[in-house]
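During the second half of the funding period, the structural biology subgroup turned its attention to how the target accommodates small molecules. The most pressing case was (2R)-2,3-dihydroxypropanoic acid, which had performed well in the primary screen but for which no bound structure existed. We therefore specified the complex as follows and requested a full 3D prediction, including the ligand pose.
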Amino acid sequence: MTRPKLVLTRRWPEAIERRLEAEFETILNPDDRPLGPDGLRSALETCDGLLATVTDRLGPEVFAGLTPRARLIANYGVGVSHIDCDAARALGIAVTNTPDVLSDCTADLAMTLLLITARRVREGEAELRAGLWTGWRPTHLVGTKVAGATIGIVGFGRIGQAMAARARFGFGMEILVYNRSAVPAGILARFGARQVGGLGALMGAADFVSLHCPGGAANRHLIGAEMLAAMRPGAFLINTARGEVVDEAALAAALAAGRIAGAGLDVYEHEPRVPAALLAAPNLVLLPHLGSATAATREAMGARVLDNVSAFFAGAPAPDRVV
Ligand code: DGY
């Protein structure tokens, strides 16, 4: 019996690549160069399953006029806003993702950004390395206290809840939640959290705002000039969700004007491009999309893709099917 043919768009953890090769006809990408729109189209025309990542812009242009051989796009990651899911559905292509396994590490990174920005870690290290540290003094690099502060969590799915656990049980923070649908009372009670009706109310009441909602058209520029203006002057914005959720120009302007105290970003609207205005903005920590980047989690994500691919091609329901 012929084995389904899979194309990996990037290099994956080696152990997962070996497992895929053992089960499927597997085309690897040893050079780790993104395929680009033409490469993605040709992969969809010639393979049974495309094993994609967030770096593959599978937008309408990739699907237009396509006669795919592929029946599955198995995404290595939980967010699927880089995939035109309607176009995939119309062509009879299923889409799966990898929820759960990256929630802890993504929340860890969000808390890392929160602490680095609040406690001025980068400035302190740069000063010391430059030989400019003159010694301890009561007024030196004074930051913002995290313990007991109020955090506003936008999006209360798995990652938002993992962030709430860290904030509540690690730092005794008060938790406000903004979520499209009502969060069950039992889940809120677990974190002593309170759901607010409007995003503006959360922005105005939080010392830290951390974004954990999906990206895509529905949430594009959810945090723009108006919401930034609603934030407390001493507040911080943290984004480990998707770049398009924040209007980057508006954020750069708010930071330059000292409207908010600082921000930490792990994701950008047009990755890997980071706008010059952000690079120049003060009190901003920028990371290169590292949310899930630990060895354990990257392997777990690969294993989750493998579970989906194996089930799908065995004719069973794929456990994490989104389309
Ligand atoms: C995710 O899983 O969505 C990560 O951001 C990587 O794509």
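Two results from this model are relevant to the next phase. Residues 54, 77-79, 102, 291-292 surround (2R)-2,3-dihydroxypropanoic acid (CB under 6 Å). The chain has a mean pLDDT of 98.
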